[in-house]
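Minutes, project check-in

Agenda point 3 was the complex the collaborators sent over. CS summarized: two entities, 906 residues total, and the question is how they sit relative to each other. Sequences were read into the notes so everyone works from the same version.
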Amino acid sequence: MIDTEFFNQLNRFSLMLRKRVSNVYAGSRRAVLQGRGIEIVGYREYMPGDDIRSIDWRVYGRTEKLYIRKFEEEKSVTTHILIDSSKSMDYSSNGTTKFDYAAMLACGFGYMVTRENEKFAISPFAENIDINPPKRGKGHLLHTIDVLNHLGLQGETRFDHCIQQYEKMIRSKSLVIVISDFLCDIDSIRAGLYRLAHNDLIVISVFDPAEYDLTIEGDAKLHDMETNEIKKTYISPRLKQEYRKLLDDHFGAVKETCNHIGADFFSFGTNTSIFEAFFEAVKAK
Amino acid sequence: MPFANPVALLALSSIIPIIILYLIKPKPRDIKIPSLMFILDMERKEHRYQTMLKKFIRDPLMLMQLLFLILLALAMASPYLVVTETVRADHTVIILDASASMQATGSGSGASGASRFDLATNVAEKFAGGKTSIILAKNVPIVALTGGSRSDAKVVLQRVQPGATAADIGGAMLLAKSIIEDETGAIVVISDFSGVDVSDDSISTSKMLANAAGIDVTFKQVGHDADNIGIVYGRLERKGDKYDYICNIKSYMGDTETVPIEVFRNSKKILSESKTIPPYSTDLFALTDLTPGATVVVLKHKDSLAVDDRAYIAIPEIAERKILFISENKNPPAKIALSSLSDTECSIVKPPVLPSFDDYDIVVVGNITKNSLLPGTFSDLATFAGSGGGLVILASADLGEIDTNNLLPVQISGKAGSTVLNTEMVSEFIGDVAFEDILVSKHLRAGLVEGSVTNVVAGDGSPMLSYRKQGAGTVVYFGFGEGDSSWNDFHTRVDYPIFWRQIVDWLSGVLEIDAYNVRTGRTYPMAGRQEVDTPSGAVTTDNLLFDEVGGYQIGDMAIAANLYDPDESNLSMDPMSAEARAPEPDTVRAEVEKELWAFLTVLVMLLAGLELYYLRARGEL
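CS then shared the predicted structure for the full assembly.
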């Protein structure tokens, strides 16, 4: 279950989102800068090199001169939160599953965006992505929390496939937050992250502390939560050592990809308090 | 798979506790850690083959422990495999037939005219390799190389020559077996096998003994049938002062052949004649009145074997022997017999006044009485005998009462009546004399003295003919007296003078004529190392082997050696199998017991190491 008690603690934070519009940075207040948008602020004579689509043919009909429309620059930004809902996120060694933790982070971001009266969408993904359109308002946030609370976790993670599907609905440069345990093929993760690189991207890896510090040893029957495959093995000290190294290598590769595309990467264990996690994430912003 | 120690297989039961231990161990824990599964899957993709192996081997440690115990038990049981493989000997002994027939040459010129022995050495070179020994099979096997290398063997094979003797192949094989001892060995016999049957007792027994010792024996036959006419037998017979020689000339050819014969006397041709010999027949050739010296009979007929085309005859020069006969009688039969001998001068003297013995080679003491001789005479006779003289003391009525200064080889105790005689030991001087036929009416009863040898003994055990060494000379006791019919009738018999000639020759160091005319293959032991002139040059030896045909000179003594062997002269051959005729070494494939315990022990040790490595790899060590 998603605990929303922490929303109050988030009031002190403000997600100072860097609203990027066309090609320059914009603040949260209205700007007089002109650019692409919906509302027309005036006209000027056509100069070679201007976009032909901007020519107002009605004015041409009246004046027989070419004028182009000038729009008010778009100032708002949409936040897209993608949350991993594969079966591996259902793991918990301390009561809070990785999905619960990830959902709290997602909702926390949603809450903060709602406070700014911006649009946001939380879309769970596993083998396919459940695309939700961005909306504003607390009603939308509550509805989303309810949906996440009742979401059934299943399947493997097809990261690149899901990102490819979702990418089509990101119309303009947005804030994209990806929350996952990233237990899937590193090539698929790289490809997916590169697809989102032109957005303001925050990548959050969620793990259970038991995954990092294996306490078990000896003969073990391993169950794959996503595929239900069973595997017998002997967990030796050497295997634990190798496992830890490979795990570090894997997440190191994810982080390296993020650094390469200019995304922010965070890794939180489910034993880390949500407040601390937000503090770290927002501090970095 | 057979086991040398099958009881040790009981140790296999030790795997039961291991299996039980693994069966009762706790079930594996069910774990659902997504990241662990993910990482293991990722690793599985990277090490696909390793993972497949792991799928088959669920518990490698158990498998290793089981394998360890099973292999240990198997190693203790000493398993072995019987496999057929090419056998290569560690030690090869090559036996080269060096008999006279191996001197036979081919009919052509060049390589086709090579001797059988040359062919044999060529074949032998192909067998030389690794550790090689070479034995020359003559009538006495001779070791030419022991445990040499291939190059050593080649050097020896270029140096060795065939002899003019028969070959004792069986004996050579036994010698080869003793050289190989406990090694993995092979014996290769290279011969013409002419007149030899490999299934005969000597060879087949030796082969069986070698085979029983795990030694492989290969026979290789060299050479082809060849024509030959040779002297296969020869004999000298004494006729008074001279000798008659008779020999057999045998043809092994399919056509009637005329054989020119030449006789050389002291290197000078004295006779030329020819014999016409029908196919596969023998003809006689005789020479009469041969006098002392060297005579050679030569067959001037071209054939494949030269060694039997010559017969060497040696008749010794005998210096005149001076004999002193001491007797109270004037002309006893013994003296008459001695006087009739050639190369002797016998003088009789009546005691007590005697000439100096130093002027005589032999002294015969005949019929004497107690007072016949002066005191000290026997002491002088002892000195004479001790310095190399021959002394014969004849029985006489008073001999038992005369002090002979212990010269007699018998101890006389009295007189006895008639008796029968037995030849107890045959010596050179007895020859063909039939002592058993002599009628004895009276004789001296006597006993033997230490160090004496008795040749003829009476029915009551009294020695009738005895001798013993006295210093460098010899003292003979002759119990028949000097020829008195009241004692015995020996002096009336035809072999009486023969006996005296023989004993005079023996005492004066003159040997039988056969001792001067020997067949090759005989050995002649000498007192010490001495230089001997042989047909191929001078050698210094203490035991001379007559392995060449021709004249030998040992000091003053000339000896002739001849082959006289129809088997060696017969160059016809029974071709053996194609394998035996092939000049290449056979590839010997044999069933060999391969012991596997060492291999298994190494596996056990490797497995123990692997187990330790595995535990270390798992981080448990």
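Noted in discussion: Chain B touches chain A at residues 25-43, 54, 58-59, 617-620 (CB under 8 Å).
Follow-up: revisit at the next meeting once the mutant set is ready.
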